[in-house]
Amino acid sequence: MVSRAQLAELEFEAGAIKYRRGIGRLHLLHRGVYAVGHRPPSPLATAMAAVLACGPTAALSHRSAAALWRILPRWPTTADVTVPGDRRHPGITIHRSSHADATTHYGIPVTTPARTLVDLADVLNHRALTRAVNEAQVLGLVTPAELITLLTRYPGRRTASLTPERGATRSHLEDNFVRFLKRHHLPLSELNQQIEGHEVDAFYRAHRLVIELDSRQFHTTPKAFERDRDRDADLLNAGFSTLRITDQRRKHQPTKRRKDSKTSCAGAVPSAYAASGRARRWPRR
Predict the structure, then answer these.
(1) Are 218 and 170 in contact (CB under 8 A)?
(2) Which residues contact 144 (CB under 8 A, 6 or more apart)?
(3) Could you give the percent of the chain with pLDDT greater than 70?
(4) Can you tell me the distance from the alpha carbon of 246 to that of 248, in angstroms, rounded to the nearest whole number?
(5) What span, in angstroms and rounded, lies between the C-alpha atoms of 28 and 203?
(6) Cβ-contact 207, 236 below 8 angstroms
(7) What is the DSSP letter of 149?
(8) DSSP code of 285?
């Protein structure tokens, strides 16, 4: 990627630029921004082109920044760029901020992970924002202490969903479990903790209760089945009860099991609940 200003610094005049465009050496991507040799094959090149088009003080932001940091799994169809002034550019979603908290990643000016989460609070729904916050923690891009700082730095923005949980979740299934606990006023568990050499999904330490949230994606192969049983045996030998909640239980168990589910998740009688094999489904929303 190269901008017209960069070409001018290299003493390329307008005629030289026009000639190279004509023979396919330069490809116009945005006003004053060119791909050299070929059009950009990757989202990174497209992102860099968008930032160059918006000037030297611009930074990739919002969904585009989240994709660059791998906080979100997909790139948006239109690049998000934050600039300090009043600037418009076709094909780019412009956001304005006098201070964008920018750094560089893969050579691209981009908002920091923490600032990216604050910006996402303005454009994502609660569920998607929760997933983004947890993904940023899992990747080691932000810490719970930094999230707390964001709540005080940006009190006027939709930052309530940035409140850290007791450990970062790693899937929508775990997000649903946390929402289920909150909705029914149950104590929050610790999440993704190391217990007796195994990483467990949820853990009630005081009651020595482990909860595993099993999906068909990761737990139906013969190898995974045996690994899960070995894990349960190790934990049982160490004095921990394990309750496994599957997709089928989550979707199809009747609502009258709420009382049993509350009792088990609170840890009062985990062994009785585990023996019953019953679980209350929690909503997707």
Answers:
(1) no
(2) 137, 164
(3) 77
(4) 5
(5) 55
(6) no
(7) H
(8) -
Question: CA 142 to CA 115: how far, in whole Å?
Answer: 10
CA distance 100 to 119: 10
- Could you give the 3-state DSSP secondary structure of residue 31? coil
| 63 contacts 83 by C-beta, under 8 angstroms | no
Do residues 236 and 270 lie in contact, with contact meaning Cβ atoms separated by under 8 Å? Answer: no
Of 237, 215, 211, which is closest to residue 224 (Cα–Cα)? 215
Residue 80: enclosing H or E segment and its boundaries?
A: strand 79-83
In order of 27, 58, 257, 275, the CA distances from 94 in angstroms are 23, 10, 49, 56
Asked if 93 and 79 count as a contact pair (C-beta separation under 8 A), the reply is yes
Q: How far apart are CA 83 and CA 63, in angstroms?
A: 15
User: Token pair of 5, please?
Assistant: 């200003």
| pLDDT single digits (tens) 76-112 | 989 999 999 877 788 899 999 988 789 999 999 999 9
Tens-place pLDDT, residues 124-171: 988 888 889 888 988 889 987 888 887 778 766 666 667 665 566 777
This prediction has a pTM of: 0.60
Q: Write the single-letter amino acid at 195.
A: I
Whose tokens are 């930032």? That residue is 51
Strands 198-204 and 190-195: antiparallel
Give me the residue label for tokens 């009258």.
256
Residue 103: in which H helix or E strand, if any? Answer: strand 102-105
